[in-house]
């Protein structure tokens, strides 16, 4: 919670949650988001980003099964890039998406969608998908958002420092 309380000082880098595959990282995301909502005042939005359809569906299902996604919020899983832009311009507690939905044709600049400082991006598979143009587009769309990385795969040689530079120090290591 200290990192969230000090978002400005840590430049939105909330840390890296590095646990083994199958250890319940998506449930840790649920617990983390609920702790933020309970402990810190604000109208928090959590954008949950991953790089594979099966993981997106699994994470969304875990949040829904835990009672976090309720009516009328059921349509917060982005079906397209255009739908994602609509969701990020609106006020939702949770938005679920693939990093690929931040793609722009021909490398065109991605529009700023929200200037809110109470958005936290939880990036699953943080070691793989957070260093390219789509990750830059996501940060351009949400310039004041904070970021926490979740990974279940041992970090690729040489990428460990890069992951920490993007997300901050380790929050938890298995």
Explain this structure to me?
- The protein has 174 residues and is of the alpha/beta class.
- Helices cover 36% and strands 19% of the residues.
- The chain has helices at residues 2-5, 25-39, 53-65, 81-89, 126-129, 133-141, 160-167, and strands at residues 13-18, 45-50, 94-98, 119-124, 146-151, 170-173.
- It has a six-stranded parallel β-sheet, sandwiched between helices.
- The two termini are 19 Å apart.
- The relative contact order is 0.24.
- The mean pLDDT is 87.
Write the layout of secondary structure elements.
Layout: H1 2-5, E1 13-18, H2 25-39, E2 45-50, H3 53-65, H4 81-89, E3 94-98, E4 119-124, H5 126-129, H6 133-141, E5 146-151, H7 160-167, E6 170-173
Parallel strand pairs: 1-5, 1-6, 2-3, 2-4, 4-5
Compose a concise summary of this entry:
This protein is an alpha/beta fold and 174 residues long. It has seven helices and six strands.
**Helix and strand string, N-terminal first?**
HEHEHHEEHHEHE
Silhouette: globular
What share of the residues lie within helices?
A: 25-40%
Cα(first) to Cα(last) distance is 19 Å
Strand order of the largest sheet: 3-2-4-5-1-6
Which structural class do the helices and strands define?
alpha/beta
Main sheet specs: 6 strands, parallel
Strand count = 6
Rg over CA atoms: 15 Å
What's the mean pLDDT score? 87
Contiguous runs where pLDDT drops below 50 for at least 5 residues: none
The number of helical elements comes to 7
Query: Hey, roughly how much beta strand do the residues contain?
Result: 15-25%
């Amino acid at each position: 919670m200290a990192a969230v309380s000090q978002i400005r000082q840590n430049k939105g880098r909330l840390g890296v949650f590095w646990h083994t595959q199958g250890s319940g990282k998506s449930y840790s995301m649920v617990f983390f988001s609920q702790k933020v909502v309970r402990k810190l005042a604000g109208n928090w939005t959590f954008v949950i980003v991953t790089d594979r359809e099966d993981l997106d569906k699994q994470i969304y299902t875990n949040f829904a099964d835990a009672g976090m996604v309720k009516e009328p919020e059921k349509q917060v899983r982005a079906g397209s890039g255009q739908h994602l832009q609509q969701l990020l311009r609106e006020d939702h507690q949770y938005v679920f998406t693939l990093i690929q939905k931040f793609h722009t044709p021909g490398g065109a600049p991605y529009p700023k969608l929200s200037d809110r400082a109470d958005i936290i991006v939880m990036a699953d598979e943080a070691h793989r998908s957070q260093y390219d143009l789509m990750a830059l587009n996501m940060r351009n769309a949400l310039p004041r958002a904070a970021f926490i990385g979740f990974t279940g795969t041992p970090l690729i040689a040489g990428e460990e420092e890069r992951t920490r530079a993007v997300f901050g120090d380790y929050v938890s290591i298995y």
